[in-house]
Write a structure and sequence with these properties.
4-stranded parallel β-sheet, about 120 residues, alpha/beta, Rossmann fold
């Protein structure tokens, strides 16, 4: 089974998480056959390892991690690869891969431009 993890930075303010929860809800409503979990780098739960554990427990054999970041800053260049590698070692029965940061996708950038244009 294929699954997805939406990976965010995390924050002290619990309200920061609300868009991520909405994003996961949208995923579930549009892709019911592919489970989704959230995971956070720091300050929020679940961690990447906890989300991989949960999806593995549901039978996931292929998990794609989608970093919901605007760019490849220090966290994605330095911290994230270490976390992903640790999960790959801990869960060798699960094929783990990652996409680039969502903000590097032209369609995402265009959606932001469109959002701004609607605000005019």
């Amino acid at each position: 089974m294929k699954a997805i993890i939406l990976f965010g930075h995390g924050a002290r303010d619990i309200r920061w998480r609300e868009p991520f929860d909405r994003l996961a809800t949208l995923w579930r409503s549009q892709h019911a056959g592919a489970p989704v979990e959230l995971a956070f780098l720091e300050m929020m739960q679940p961690s990447l390892e906890e989300s991989v554990t949960a999806l593995g427990g549901m039978g996931a054999t292929h998990i794609t991690v989608v970093p919901v970041f605007f760019g490849q800053g220090g966290h994605l260049r330095n911290d994230f690869p270490v976390l992903l590698s640790a999960c790959q070692e801990k869960f060798p029965q699960i094929a783990l891969s990652a996409t680039p940061a969502v903000g590097e996708d032209l369609a995402v950038l265009q959606a932001i431009v469109d959002f701004g244009a609607r605000a005019l």
